[in-house]
Write a structure and sequence with these properties.
The protein is an alpha/beta fold. The chain is 47% helix and 14% strand. It has a 6-stranded parallel beta sheet with strand order 3-2-1-4-5-6, sandwiched between helices. The chain has a 3-stranded mixed beta sheet with strand order 7-8-9. Helix 4 links the parallel strand 5 and strand 6. The termini are far apart.
Length: 296
């Protein structure tokens, strides 16, 4: 197969738009679709064709890449796309869908003779825009050449977790990684909230841990967004993080593992969303520490 492909990108939110843009810059023919067309329209300036329907977007595509909200959304959109699907096309499913949903999506792929790749990504807005995502992928070795140019355009590295996308091994790894990311984000917000409540200058805390094993760049990045008012545009939105946190809790429950921190983190994110911070960066979970707005 030629390295220049026709790629259909279904879902052009924060991550999907960046992925579509990098695919176009790599020389691939990109057909983009989004439920809210206005989120896809800017991609036309990068050379992407903006499709009016999922069916139009996938017609004749070598690779279909889905980056949607959740598993049910991905399945719904692919059902809409079904009349345009080409047997033998590769489906790169990058939505964080959850373990059960991956099986349903893989079954759809089998019914429509698609080559299914379970391929969530690690990274937020900035690495997505730079094409530096970490791709976690599972799919048949004999078909990987068909999707390698796509992964090379959107990511800096691909970690293969298995040959059967339906087993959800890549999604399982994504949930494990996201459990750490969400826990760290919630902890960062609580550090600032507690410092405020106790009258402690946060810089004193950062000075105390500087250069030691408790220091981490991610803590400083997320607290910086809160302190500097940089929560919009989001790197990764509160509502999406809350959805992922629930998927993590559900995966733990089904496997007989109690994830108290993940459950509390999901509740915290949901509370921040209810306060009106759903479209802000997930660091805005900070606001869940307060009944209203924190004091100035």
């Amino acid at each position: 197969m030629t390295d220049k492909l026709t790629v259909s990108v279904l879902g052009t939110g924060i991550m999907g738009a960046a992925m579509a843009r990098n695919l176009a810059r790599a020389g691939h023919t990109v057909r983009a679709w989004n439920r809210s067309r206005d989120k896809a329209e800017p991609l036309a300036a990068d050379g992407a064709h903006i499709a009016g329907t999922p069916e139009e977007a996938v017609r004749g595509a070598d690779v279909i890449l889905t980056m949607l909200y959740d598993g049910p959304a991905a399945l719904d959109v692919m059902r809409q796309a079904a009349p345009g699907l080409r047997p033998g096309a590769a489906w790169v499913q990058s939505t964080t869908a959850g373990i059960d949903a991956v099986g349903e999506l893989a079954a759809f792929a089998h019914r429509h003779d698609l080559v299914f790749f379970d391929a969530p990504v690690l990274g937020t807005r900035q690495p997505a825009e730079a094409g530096h995502l970490l791709v976690l992928a599972a799919g048949p070795a004999k078909a990987r050449d068909a999707v390698t140019p796509v992964f090379d355009a959107i990511g800096s590295r691909t970690v293969w977790t298995g040959e059967d996308g339906a087993a959800g091994t890549a999604t399982r790894l994504k949930l494990v990684a996201n459990s750490w990311v969400i826990a760290a984000t919630n902890a960062a917000g609580e550090v600032l909230a507690l410092a405020e409540a106790l009258g402690v200058d946060p810089d004193g805390f950062f000075d105390a841990i500087a250069g030691g094993p408790l220091d981490m760049g991610y803590l400083r990045t997320k607290t910086g967004l809160i302190r500097d008012g940089g929560l919009t545009p989001p790197q990764f939105a509160v509502t999406t993080a809350a959805k992922d946190a629930r998927l993590i809790v559900e995966a733990g429950e089904r496997s007989g593992v109690r994830l108290d921190v993940a459950a509390a983190g999901a509740e915290r994110l949901e509370r921040a969303a209810a306060q009106g911070h759903g479209d802000e960066d997930m660091a805005a979970a900070y606001y869940a520490s307060f009944d209203g707005k924190p004091s100035d």
